[in-house]
Design brief:
Keywords: ATP-binding, Kinase, Membrane, Nucleotide-binding, Phosphoprotein, Transferase, Transmembrane, Transmembrane helix, Two-component regulatory system. InterPro entries: HATPase_C_sf (IPR036890), HATPase_dom (IPR003594), His_kinase_dom (IPR005467), HisK_dim/P_dom (IPR003661), Sig_transdc_His_kin-like_C (IPR004358). GO terms for molecular function: ATP binding; phosphorelay sensor kinase activity. It comes from Mucilaginibacter celer. This protein folds into 3 domains: 143 residues, no CATH class; 91 residues; 147 residues, 2-Layer Sandwich (Heat Shock Protein 90), CATH 3.30.565.10. Helix 1 packs antiparallel against helix 2 and helix 1 runs antiparallel to helix 5. The chain is of the alpha+beta class. The protein is rod-shaped, with a radius of gyration of 39 Å. The relative contact order is 0.07. It has a 5-stranded mixed beta sheet, with helices on one face. The chain has a 4-stranded antiparallel beta sheet with strand order 2-1-6-5. It has a two-stranded antiparallel ribbon with strand order 3-4. Helix content is 54%, strand content 19%. The structure holds adenosine-5'-triphosphate and magnesium ion. Adenosine-5'-triphosphate binds next to helix 8 and helix 9.
Length: 405
């Protein structure tokens, strides 16, 4: 079973769940807002009726009762007459509506008329006015949402933003802790492997020397082959030890390093696969050659695996003078990668091969990103036609001969 298929399904499920929660919360709050808005209109109406009773009545008991009812209503409102002049108001900012005695001039300062105008305009925008007849004249009651209702309208957005920020922080924390855990596993395993290989390799080298002496066989073909294999083992151990520690980068001609490896590699694969090597020989980058060879080996092996039968592999080295970068493009005529898998192929454990571990590309990505401060990605791919992987490194020599890639 492919764990990445699972991961994706979970991601979609969680996303769907989040959308359900968010829309449920928005729906419920908008339901509450609608009901409160309805009740606020009723309250404005009650206030308007009470005002009419106050203006029309001289019964003190009744007036006290009406005042009590009126003051229990918290909807900010203004009544205007037929000409639009303000008759009375309620629930507005008292610091701007009241008449105050000014200490300096000892005069009463009138309320702020601009404030009333502003409020009236705002109320006109918010709700249609309630018409009210007082002494046969048409008056209009304008009102706006109470502070409570305004806050409630904002509430779901504030709530969702807070939840989103929280989820983002949690996700970042989890993924960075998972990444550092992965780092520790990689580094630990690599160190242990290099350590375990070290002792038998040293013994093998010593045994070979002893054999040569004992059988007086300096030029024996079998011993030479054995020596080659031991050298290969040494390279493998060296790679693992470098993965387990901080790699030292040295400036190298990218062209020379890549060409050396391609030349070594191409004679070891089927004759049905042809190789083409092109590029700018002047580009330089900081490289750790044993680790970089490992990258090339993984990419070229994958290209060979992707070509079923006859095909070709093209390696090209070019650069971008403006961005001061070196590009290494490896193109094959293999089976191609689906666009949806462009990122997935770099995940550890993802493989489509029967005997693959799915580790090659994730190791390659680590070597390029963590040890060479570069980038690697699928530049292009088409199913059935082929794939181009691109490595981007920093050009350490801004040569005039650099071509734009
Ligand atoms: N050039 C390519 N063309 C088509 N598919 C590719 C190519 N390179 C990688 N892939 C796909 O990406 C998968 C992962 O590659 P990766 O090198 O990480 O693992 P692997 O080759 O399957 O196993 P191994 O651990 O032995 O390298 C491959 O199984 C293959 O499906
Ligand atoms: Mg591979």
């Amino acid at each position: 079973m492919n764990p990445y298929q699972h991961k994706k399904r979970w991601k979609y499920l969680l996303l769907a769940f989040a959308v359900v929660i968010a829309s449920g919360s928005l729906f419920y709050t908008s339901y509450l807002v609608k009901n409160i808005a309805k009740s606020e209109r009723t309250r404005a109406q009650v206030w308007a009726i009470s005002m009419r009773q106050i203006l029309a009545s001289d019964d003190n008991d009744f007036l006290n009762y009406v005042f009590a009812v009126r003051d229990s209503l918290t909807v900010p409102a203004i009544i205007t007459d037929g000409k639009g002049e303000i008759v009375t108001y309620r629930g507005l900012d008292t610091t701007r509506t009241s008449i105050k005695l000014e200490a300096e001039t000892k005069k009463y300062k009138k309320y702020d008329p601009a404030y009333f105008k502003e409020e009236l305009e705002y109320m006109k925008e918010q709700h249609a006015p309630i018409k009210l007849k007082v002494f046969g004249e048409d008056n209009y009651v304008y009102y706006k949402d109470s502070p409570l209702l305004s806050q409630l309208r904002l509430f779901p957005y504030v709530q969702l933003t807070v939840i989103a920020i929280f989820l983002l922080m949690a996700y970042t924390a989890f993924s960075s802790s998972r990444k550092s855990e992965q780092d520790r596993v990689w580094v630990g395993l690599a160190k242990e492997t290099a350590h375990q290989l070290g002792t038998p390799i040293s013994s093998l080298i010593a045994w070979i020397e002893l054999m040569k002496e004992k059988f007086n066989a300096q030029d024996d073909v079998l011993i030479a082959e054995m020596e080659n294999d031991v050298k290969r083992l040494e390279i493998v151990a060296d790679r693992f030890s470098k993965i387990g520690s901080k790699a030292v980068l040295e400036e190298h001609s990218v062209y020379a390093v890549v060409k050396d490896f391609v030349d070594y590699f191409k004679v070891r694969v089927s004759k049905n696969i042809s190789f083409e090597f092109t590029g700018n020989p002047h580009l330089k980058a900081g490289l750790n050659v044993p680790l970089f060879d490992w990258v090339l080996e993984n990419l070229l092996k994958n290209a060979v695996n992707a070509i079923e039968g006859k095909g070709s592999i093209k390696v090209d080295i070019c650069g971008n003078k403006v961005k001061n970068q070196v590009f290494i493009d490896i193109t094959d005529t293999g089976k191609g990668i689906a666009r949806s898998k462009f990122d997935t192929v770099f995940q550890p454990g993802y493989t489509t091969r029967k005997r693959g571990w799915g580790l090659g590309l994730s190791l390659t990505k680590r070597i390029i990103e963590n040890y060479h401060n570069g980038q690697i990605f699928v530049k292009d791919s088409e199913l059935g036609k082929g794939t181009t992987f691109r490595i981007v490194l920093k050009n350490t020599r801004n040569d005039k001969k650099t071509t734009n890639g």
